[in-house]
Every structure is written in structure tokens, then in C-alpha cells.
Specification:
Elements: E1 2-6, H1 11-22, E2 27-31, E3 42-45, E4 48-51, H2 53-63, H3 78-111, H4 118-139, H5 152-156, H6 158-166, H7 171-174, H8 177-187, H9 190-195
Parallel strand pairs: 1-2
Antiparallel strand pairs: 1-3, 3-4
Helix pairs in contact: 1-2, 3-4, 3-6, 4-8
Amino acid sequence: MLKLYGSSRCCSTARIAVVLHEKQIGYELHPLHPTNSDAQPHIDDNGILLHGCRNICQYLATRYPERGTKLIPDSSDTQATELFGQAKYAENQSFEPFAKNALYETIMKRQQGFLPSDAIGGSALQELSNNIEGYESILGCRKYLAGNEISLVDLYHLPYGEMLCNVGIDVLLTKGPNVSRWWADISSRPSWLTIRNGVPSKG
């Protein structure tokens, strides 16, 4: 059985776990303490060792195409592959960095005993809000970010998106009907509901 090493409350571990559940791949969670310098999530898939959250998710979707939900386009479909690449870039460059900074300044600094910077937090939140407006346009043309079928890219938004909603940052709920519809769709998937409050020890 595949072994997943990571903290059950870590965003990167959650990303990997939601893909495992979507792909219906059994796993065992081997907890890593988040303060451990070697605590970055990784997997052991029958001797194949992989690190890096997105690298692992791409591997799982490619290695097990016949299982569960198909999360990447066929390599022979040039148009779908291009849309998928564009969506991956948008999530990695336009969503996560600003969501992470906004959350860090809003809640994480206080939890660590530091004073937040309203200027940095406000700037990150404004950039995030502007970028989500771009999502509204994209999602007016298709059901999901990379096409009309759900993909890895949509799932990548779940951990930080959930955290944003939990602290009252409502950019995924108020930027337009298309983003709101998309967020309601992906955040209610059984795979996410299973792990949203912590990755279970077995899947």
C-alpha cells in the first residue's frame, strides 16, 4: 500500500490526500511533525520515493489513469493540455502566493506571537481579489479552470481556499456567480469532505 508521509493538518499533505481519494488509491498516513526540518510531505509508492506536492499529484494522476477521477488531460489532446498548463500556472502564480501571504498576515503571525503588517496583508489580499476576478471570466466560459472536467488544478485550490473562508476572507464567495458556483462544486466533493478537517490515517 502507498505510504504518505506528512502532517495531517498540512496544506500540502491535504492536496496529496484529496488526489489519492479522487483516484481511489489506498494509502497509509505516516505522520510527520510540522516543526521537523524533514517534514515536507512525500510518498513511498512500492519503492518509488517522491517529494514535492504538485510533483506527487501529477505522478498519481499519470501513474493511475484508470482509477477514479481522471485529473489530467490526455497528452495527445493538444488544446486540453494547453488549457491545463495555463490553469496550473495561474494557480501557482496568481492564487497560492497571495492566499498564503494574506493568511500569514491575517492569522499566522498572531499565532506565532508577531504583529501582522496591515500593508503587506492588504496588498496580498488586493492582488488575490484582482486575480480571482480573472477566474470569474475564465469560469464564465467553462465549468472548471482547465476545461469542463475537474482537474488537479481545481483540487490544488482547496486547502488554502478553505482556510480563507474559515477566517472570513470571502473572495471565493463574492467575486461573481461563476467563481461561487465553482467553489461550491469543488469544496463539496466527497474526497475533500473526507480530509478537510485532517487527513485520516488510512484511505
